[in-house]
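Single Protein Entry

Contents — chain, fold
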Amino acid sequence: MLVMCCRYSALRFPGHGVAHGQVGDRVSIRSGRTVTGSCHCGAVRFEITSDFPELTTCDCSMCRRRGVRMVKVHESRFRLLSGEEALTRYQFHTHTAQHFFCTVCGIYPFHRKRVTPDFYGVNVNCLEGFDPAGIPVRATVGAGMP
C-alpha cells in the first residue's frame, strides 16, 4: 500500500491573492454567485463561483471517512485568498487526487479531483452562509475506481 503525506509545496492555485468583495446573505441555490469559504480557524480562505447544479458524495475510503458533500468547481472559478502556507496535501492510491487540509485546525476545505484534475471538489460545509437545501445530491462511486 502506497501512502504519501507531505507538506503543501509548489502546487498552483489559480488566482491566488486576488480578493473580491464580501458576499451578502445566504446564497440562493442557482445564483451563480461568488461565495467565500474557509477552514474552521480561518487560516485558509478561498472563494468559488458556481450555480450549484448538484452536490456530490463519494464512497472512496477517504470521502467515506470524512463524510462531506462537495460541489465540483473548475479551477478558473476557484481562488485561494489566503493560507497557502497553512495547507498540507495528502495523496493515496494513484497519487492523482490532492486532498488539502489546514495544518492549524485539520479541516478539509477542498481537493483536486482525480478523474478531472482541472476541477476542485469543495466541501460545502466550509462555505459561508451557504444553505444546501433543495440542491440534488448525487452519490459517486469512488471505491470501485481502479
About this structure: The chain has one domain: 29-140. Residues 29-140 form a domain with the Metal Binding Protein, Guanine Nucleotide Exchange Factor; Chain A fold (CATH 2.170.150.70). Residues 1-12, 14-30 have pLDDT under 50 and may be disordered. The longest helix spans residues 61-66.
